[in-house]
User: Fold these one by one.
Assistant:
Number 1:
Amino acid sequence: MYPADRRYTKDHEWIVVTGNLGRVGITDYAQKQLGDVVFVEPPDVGRAVSQGQSAGNIESVKAVSELYSPATGKVIAVNGDLSAKPELVNTDPHGTWLFEIELSNPGEVANLLDNQQYAELVK
Amino acid sequence: MNQPSTEQLKKTPLNARHRAHGARMVPFGGWDMPVEYSGIVNEHMAVRTKAGLFDVSHMGQIEVAGKDALGAVQRISSNDATKLSVGQAQYSALTTPAGTFIDDLIVYRLASDHFLLVVNAGNIEKAYKWIADETRAVGDVAVVNSSARYALLAVQGPAAPAIVQQLTAADLTGVKYYWFTHGEVAGVRSIIARTGYTGEDGFELFIPPASAERVWNTILETGASAGIVPVGLGARDTLRLEAGMHLSGQDMDETTTVLEADLGWLVGWKKHDFIGKAALEQQKAAGVTRRLVGFEMAAPGIARHGYPAHARGGDGIVTSGTQTPLLKKAIGLAYLPTAATTPGTEFEIDIRGRRTPARVVPRQFYKRPR
């Protein structure tokens, strides 16, 4: 269910780290809690983000929820597909990244949950 | 966590049915209610294109009966109940002396001296007490909170009338919008009313609570081939908003008058009197300083309840907002200074610190094809 190639936050984001870059999305558990996602508001490109701090919003029909950055660094890209197709977050949560961070410290994510720990958290 | 535990929440007769069928449950107005079954978008679209079944048993029923029942209803309800024939229903406001809302309601005339008032779930006790107190001096009238005697199901959508017709011998073609009849539905005695809160055709069925599950199941079985789905409060909210209908307690309350809420058509100006009439007449003569309008966002973003609005001529506030599943745009309702309420007027909404452009549009975002 939860891929082993990434790390997870207790706030239900995931991050896939490749070199000094990290791509961030939300988990299947999170999308189920949100319901139909209709609008993704990622942090602006160029913005500095910190691990555990607010980094944009995700809106379902019902409500708005805050996104928290799983890592510290600078936002270098946002997923442009989501402005036209926010529902990708529901249909393919683990294949749909929201924003990409140039990581200040790629080792930082070691303090996040692995897939088994996360699966236990949301069990 | 200030959320009351589910044990403290009231339950409709269908509560176990909702839970057994995987509905996501939330507290609403003191009730444990289904917010979604298969997803808000799916449920919303089913009601717009096929049919949906809603458990709205949390709504309150108050009966007013006796020789002077009409006089009692005329006193507490802003609309003119003398216009109601037996078998007819009327949308109205339960007003304070200031012309503001205790609640909105639908008045059903069951007999010449017997009315059934349907009020909102969170307001049942308050509305009942208000009506009982305010009609005490009227004369020969009894006011009864009969909420526990009714389960209320709504069948809504273009396929709804055909589905309900299959389950009753009553001729529904003769029951026009905002009229009702009596008959058996799925073998259960029912008030069958052509009313609803979705902007679609359909019926609301007042039935004995003990039979609610049987009727619910039979409607779902009968409507299966037509694509009926159970619908939760989430889609009920997006459907009513798209249709430009108010949510009491959110779009209007004791701080907003009937005229400010743009519901002047609920006022029986020719009536001898009702609570709040003088205040509303005065406000009508002076003109309102703010009014509820429909808006759509002119840039990405979704405005939500409570977000500040900034218009030329003053500030306002968003009372409802969502992304509509059908029209696929962000819409809402907001109070704005009167000078800014003309359709086409541009203003801004503060979306979590970001001033985002929006535009005033007619409040009925969606009108069903006829």
Note: Chain A is about 20% helix and 35% strand.
Number 2:
Amino acid sequence: MIRPVVVVWLVVAACMAAGVYLITYRTSQARAELAETRTRIAEHREALRVLRAEWSYLARPERIGRLARERLNMRPVRPGRTARVETVPPRVVRGMEPARERGELTNAADSAVLPHRRPWSLDPAEARGLAAGGDA
Amino acid sequence: MTPHRQPDALLRAARAASGHLTALCRARLSLAGIAFAAMFAVLGLRVLLLAAPGGDGRADVEPVADGEPAGERAAIVDRNGTLLATTLPTSSLYANPNRVRDPARLARRLDPILPERDAATLTRRLEREGEFIWLKRDITPRQHGRIQALGSPALGTREETKRYYPQGKLAGHLVGFTDVDGRGLAGVEKAYGEQLRRRDEPLRLALDVRVQHALSDELRGAVERYDAKGAAGVVMDARTGELVAMTSLPAFDPAAPDAAPETARFNRATQGAYEMGSVFKIFAAAAALESENVRINDRYSVDEPVRLADYTVRDFHPLEGELTVPELFMKSSNIGTVKMARATGAERITRTLKKLGLTRRAPLALDAVADPIMPEPWRRINAMTASYGHGIAVTPVQIARAVAATVNGGVLPQPSVRRDVEGDDGRRVLARPTSRTLRRMMRLVVAYGTGGKAAADGYRVAGKTGTADKASHGGYGGDARVASFAGAFPSDDPRYVIFTLVDEPKASAAPHGYATGGWVAAPVVRKVVERVGPLLGIRPNRGFTVPKQANNPLLRRARQKDVQLATR
């Protein structure tokens, strides 16, 4: 004769077995996932190192200088061609945010300043607007 | 019949006791049962919580951080973080000769893939007995692919790491190089080899790649123009002694150091000891002004050559009259300098040279640093010839450091290759007023004197030219010279010292046949200052004017004395 207590115990044991099986399964799954992620991190790190080296190689001052000279007709900056930001008159052009409005530029006297938006446009209408901007 | 029959007496006693014994056992059993049930309940609950479909399946375990795997040699970067040396993965090709059936055939098939190995050599290597030989370290990904496509069981590749120098020849002497197994053999790679192996983050040097490029570029121009043997240049932070640029030409590529001749691997900036000529007058003048025996307006006659033991000291361009200290400095008179040195005293001059670090090897962490070459024993006459830069040979780094001390207010900085370590503050070696006067005198050289070609646009440059005949076969003579210029800018509060040296410029290639410091080395300094001044964040001073020579305070005082003498 099987007592009800035994039945209860059997059910509990079965549930626990199933639970333990599930956890083990999930753990091994997570472990595989972790290993894969670690491999991917290592791969990305390696790729990053290679890309950084490549970046440095391509951004060699000698190469940038040569390209700027040949393709862009640029020359090294001469001291006479530098100016302080404060001495540049504010540019007032429709549809373009003036660079001076950005707070951090006012106290960065020594750094190169990039306008918020490029001061040129391929759009003929806007380009005309830029040309006439000084008067407007 | 069992062999172990229980005695009747014992059986009886057990029966009598069985009533309360059973009760005791039951109590104990149920106690154990409850305990077990409780424990199982806890376990079961935990299992249910973890495994329940709605549960997150997470246990509260400390996450294990996995950092960057150690063991890779750290990168070297410049002061702005530009990569100078890094470690990259690569593959190397090996072969197992015991598995090669037909070495000649395999060599023929490998030949087009490895263009730098010829088939005959490959055949010979593959014919040897053995389990393992390297065929080529560091093959390209394309070669790797083609070798795999060959499908030979005798070939294999191994993942390795390789040191890579993105800037190429630019800073080869400073950065150095490693062997194929990653051991540092020269430069920073050797000096900081142990640290590079253990560090996680890159090693930051004081070097600025942009300044290094400008300096190398301009020096290369001078070498080509004057058909010189080589050149050296140093840009040093005048206050901290940091080496912002250090060039030696001809340069070599650290990726292939064996391909370069020994002369190219020689670092002229730290290993080349040169007699510097008139550049040393800076230090003689400093010694003179520090002593009580010489006043700035003392006059020395420069009409007649001076005899020093068995040589006669002459001027490069004959001068006449009596010159004050600033005047003889500006015109670079050897005769006047020797007379000034005599008045100063040999001991004082020797002491000043010693204090400025010119008599000892520059304290750099690098391996390849040369000792100065000085006569042994050092006599009075040696101090006299040293006053105009003869009879003592020092390295460009030593000169840059001594000039930094002369112009920065009189504190000798510790030269350093690295950016990320705090050096000590340096020792005071000259009085502040002496340093200020010398700055002005060096400014005179560029404004009105022999260093006019160093006058840059937008920056006041101060400096001193130097031209020295190279000693050869026990004597001086011939066309072999060293042209140099030691400069600092901006002259009122110098931030950087620039020293350039051109080794054996050909007089025939120079304008008017003068392969002197003023014609060869000074223009390099001008161009470098104009290029790097804006980069280093030094605001150019546009439209400054050079006052008329007659109005310069240092020279005017001299003239007033003339007038006073004339009217007396």
Note: The radius of gyration of chain A is 33 Å.
